[in-house]
Amino acid sequence: MKKILAIILVCLLGMQLLGGCGITEKVGQLRAAFRDKEDAADNGADTGEEQANNGENAGLPEVVILPDGSSAAAGSEAAGSAQTTAALGGEAKSVILYFTDQDGENLIAEERRIAKVEGIARASIEALLAGPVNADLQSALPEGTRLLDINITKDGLAIVDFSGDLSENLKDSNKKEKTAIYAIVNTLTEFPTVKKVEIRIDGKKINTLSGKVKLDQDLFRDESLVKK
Question: pTM of this prediction?
């Protein structure tokens, strides 16, 4: 801008020498005109930058962080579901769950892929309660049973607490008490951090579910029930 002004001034000086015009007046007018243009340009740049800063987040969706650490746009179906880890690119882990055959006499292992979350043992028991994928298998646990809590101690004891449906519905169904209990125990002891299991009902220790298996002691893995 200043170079242009200098060139124009030189030209005007030449014109003054040739034509006798008032150089001082013309220089003043040109300086004022260029000053106005520079001020306008400067103000325009500042305004544009401010608008860019104020509008840099305009139109972008609000992002929420799901419990598993993945993200989704607020209001989306993904953001409202805790089952979207794999769909959003989260890691999955293979686990072994134990169900029964149609007779309910034997345990059969089913490998499943579930979202890799911090409480993987809890997620495995929830999947166990939800039932098998294989149509030839059935759940060893009575319908309506809910997981209330699960804790794993430093010495490898998994304390798992179920709703009373586990004992009440077991008595009135064709589910086998032993396969029901060891479906839980064998599923949990698949994890290296779990060595033994304690089963509780509604937060309380109990002696048995229906009289065949004692629950007032630690339960260890039993491979004899597993059908190879």
Answer: 0.61
